[in-house]
Amino acid sequence: MILSLFRKPPLKKAAKKQPAPKALRAERAYSVAGRNLPLSVWENPRAKRLTLRIETGGKAIRVTVPPRLPERELDLFIARHHGWIEAQISKVPVAVPFMDGSTIHIRGIAHRIVHEPAKRGTTRQDHDENGQAILIVHGDAQHMGRRIADYLKKLAKTDINGLVLVHTGRIGKPATSVRFKDTTSRWGSCTSKGDLAFSWRIMMAPAEVINYLVAHEVAHLIEMNHGPDFWALCTRLCPDTPTSRAWLKRHGSALHAVSFASVTD
Hints:
This protein is an alpha/beta fold. 33% of the residues lie in helices and 24% in strands. The protein is built from six helices and eleven strands. Strands 1-2-4-3 form a four-stranded mixed beta sheet.
């Protein structure tokens, strides 16, 4: 065996670009579409122009600006885009605390909430004497939102875990783990290690949309991108991909806007 005395120096790995540090410049209340929303202004050293974003669920407004932008330019930018902001916010329903008689969608089906405060037990679905779908919730009214959220989480674990098994069986590659979160930036995710995560709020969407979301993330176990091969695989797993994807894009913000916060007396 001959060892070379002239070895090439190891190539240095290119340093990963770190995200530009952002600084909160100001916060203010902004009145639009009959609502008062928090508006935050962030300075980004890499920003070359002003950008405007409505936070998921229409709960806040975020403006990113270059450093040292004059306040007058900021105000003019926001005023110029007021109509766009109003149009986007108007699409999102006002969050209303759950109460007896209000409605919650489960797998896309509207359920009338029936509150039975004197009883104790698990939240469950049923039908009233007219055949209308209802969701029976026991316990104190102030905990109704939490109980409904817990019920959706329970359904998510049952339905989505089952769908994951179906779709991973079809591609011949199992998921490493399946987790459930209340994310605001995305409906699901898949890591390079095969860990899947889903927002349990998707249980308010129609069944075919839930199936699409699972097929989407399972497809990432094979294709970690959104190229043509990925979409071909996603559509093979879920033929409803185009319509379900459009539904989620159109109605997703409304699902994020649903408030499960506890009501205090």
